[in-house]
Amino acid sequence: MWALQRRDAMSVWQQFELKDRLVEYREIFQGKRIPRYKLARLFYVPIDEKKSQKDLLDIHEHYHTKFKTWLEEKQTVPLEDIEKEVFAKHKEEEIRKNNYLKLKVMITKDILSACEFCENRCKADRAGGKIGNCGVDGQAYISSAFVHMGEESPIVPSGTIFFYGCTFQCVFCQNHDISQEFAFERFKGKGHTPLDLAQMYYSLKSQGVRNINFVGGEPTPNLHLILESFLEAQVDLPMLWNSNMYLTETSMKILVDVFDIWLPDMKYSNNDCATKYSKASKYWEALQRNMKMIEERGSGEYIIRHLVMPNHTNCCSIPILNWVNENLKTPLVNIMGQYRPEYKVLRTEMYPEIKKKPTTSEMYNVRKHADDLGVYWKSVS
Ligand code: SF4
Q1: How far is the CA of 104 from the centre of ligand 1 (A)?
Q2: Which H or E run contains 304?
Q3: Which atom of ligand 1 is nearest to the CA of 124?
Q4: pLDDT in tens, 185-198
Q5: Cα-atom radius of gyration of the chain, to the nearest Å?
Q6: Domain boundaries in the chain?
Q7: In this predicted model, what pLDDT tens digit does every residue of 336-378 receive, in sequence order?
Q8: Cβ 122 under 6 angstroms from ligand 1
Q9: How far, in Å, is the centroid of ligand 1 from the Cα of 135?
Q10: What is 2-380's CATH topology?
Q11: What is the pTM of this model?
Q12: Atom of ligand 1 nearest to the CA of 116
């Protein structure tokens, strides 16, 4: 049925530029490759729970390269064959307690007591129930989970899970009711467990989705529980990280090799704009580093989202396209024209320069610049 609603979700795969950029993603939802999380939990890593966070991170770094090589060898081998091989060396029970994914879960749970998942680095004791700058404690609070038909054509239909809370405070947020203005006391303590999440993936899969799409608000504050849910999950679907990418380097290291595809937002190309509109003072450095990490340490498959804002084409849109063109190997950009004034921009007179939609000529100039550079955008915008 969905193919009638979004014919482009089928026809888009005839574009060779896109096919070549999203090989792993496509083969996972077609059942020809194993999602990364399933291999991460079969990859033996001896775990000593008494080790310090620093030691665990060193062990993670040591095994990252080994896992990368193993993943490349095994991702297209039938899962039963890999399990046979792995369980011949280590008992099933032993693997369950000692694996690469489990190590990641342990590290994130440790970080949670003085949280530094994102560059706000507010060090809130979320494990002890304290609330961070992102507005949530250590539990996962989900606003909705459904089959999304409005995403970019290669992603549709998408099993989208919206988390409450955000690591940004965007003054124009279109989802401010779940990112910033939710009444936390209403549901405090009634969060979703990793098993709830794993069951949601199963339910979304049974509705025919092509991926599990973690979004919000922002998924970053929930990365410990999302990873823990992967210890239980059974779905053969690509896992998609849909984010503002304001993660710390450590968070990125932990996430980057278990997610199959990325929807990174590239909003601003400088810290002045990021600070003024999103209170993200370390944005540009973090964004550049994290985008490179997707290519260097992860699947390298992504669709960048760039929302064109009025009066921000010269300071943000054009420099972002230039950076993407000069620094990334396989840029694929959704140049989005749907900005409209919302939330604080609409309610106050503090941001007159963005209290309007981008003009037709602004949109034209940004898209023309992408064409001039040869940055591929058409079939995902
Ligand atoms: S994820 Fe939340 S609690 Fe953790 S550092 Fe970021 S804002 Fe602070």
Answers
A1: 18
A2: strand 304-307
A3: 3
A4: 888 999 999 999 99
A5: 20
A6: 2-380
A7: 999 999 999 999 999 999 999 999 999 999 999 999 999 999 9
A8: yes
A9: 8
A10: TIM Barrel (3.20.20)
A11: 0.97
A12: 5
